[in-house]
């Protein structure tokens, strides 16, 4: 199964991202993740059978609740446009410590540097969009282990476990 660790977004942050997606749709075309799929990835485990290891890494996460904020112009990796996140160094500390712990448990993660982002659209076709993500913030109190399935051509994310930050 294909697994990843992520932050599920609050209604306020999701709403800001939906506004940005609606503006993007007026300016071009692409593959837009549906509202329920918007999330911030902390670590992508890829195809693995080691669900116990993934759960153990999630449960070992040690981090206080912290604030996550979106807002401003989107960025892009090639034809994938995303909303950046600002705020707390706790986010990067959390992602890097999860990734180190997963590697220590034998997971083979990619070496690409952690660039926290929330994907708004993939395979964008259009000019560089003139869009501003409205400002919104949330307190992150929980992180999740998600399974990603492709069912009838649709990407479905299912939460398998979560861990409260304290
Ligand atoms: P993306 O939104 O930038 O594509 C589930 O696939 C989540 O894991 C997505 O948020 C995806 O990021 C992220 N991810 C990170 N590395 C990935 C990879 N090598 N393949 C697919 N998804 C990856």
UniProtKB/TrEMBL annotation:
Enzyme Commission (EC) number: 3.1.4.58
Record has Lipid metabolism as a keyword: no
Alphabetically ordered keywords of this record: Hydrolase
One Pfam match: 2_5_RNA_ligase2
Extent of motif HXTX 1: 39-42
Motif (HXTX 2) on chain: 117-120
Catalytic activity: a 3'-end 2',3'-cyclophospho-ribonucleotide-RNA + H2O = a 3'-end 2'-phospho-ribonucleotide-RNA + H(+)
Active-site residues, record numbering mapped to chain: 39, 117
HAMAP family named in the record: RNA_CPDase (MF_01940)
UniProt similarity note: Belongs to the 2H phosphoesterase superfamily. ThpR family.
Role of this protein: Hydrolyzes RNA 2',3'-cyclic phosphodiester to an RNA 2'-phosphomonoester.
Cited NCBIfam families: 2_5_ligase
Protein name: RNA 2',3'-cyclic phosphodiesterase
Gene behind this protein: thpR
């Amino acid at each position: 199964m294909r697994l990843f660790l992520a932050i599920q977004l609050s209604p306020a942050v999701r709403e800001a991202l939906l506004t940005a997606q609606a503006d993007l749709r007026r300016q071009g075309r692409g593959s837009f993740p549906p509202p329920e799929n918007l999330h911030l990835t902390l670590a992508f485990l890829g195809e693995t059978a080691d669900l116990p290891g993934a759960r153990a890494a999630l449960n070992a996460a040690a981090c206080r609740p912290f604030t996550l904020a979106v807002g401003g112009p989107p960025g892009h990796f090639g034809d994938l446009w995303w909303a950046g996140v600002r705020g707390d160094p706790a986010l990067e500390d959390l992602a890097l410590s999860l990734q180190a712990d997963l590697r220590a448990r034998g997971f083979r993660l990619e070496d690409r540097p952690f660039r926290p982002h929330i994907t708004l659209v993939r395979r964008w076709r259009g000019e560089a969009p003139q869009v501003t993500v409205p400002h919104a913030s949330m307190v992150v109190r929980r992180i999740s282990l998600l399974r990603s399935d492709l069912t009838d051509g649709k990407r479905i994310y299912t939460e398998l476990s979560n861990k409260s930050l304290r």
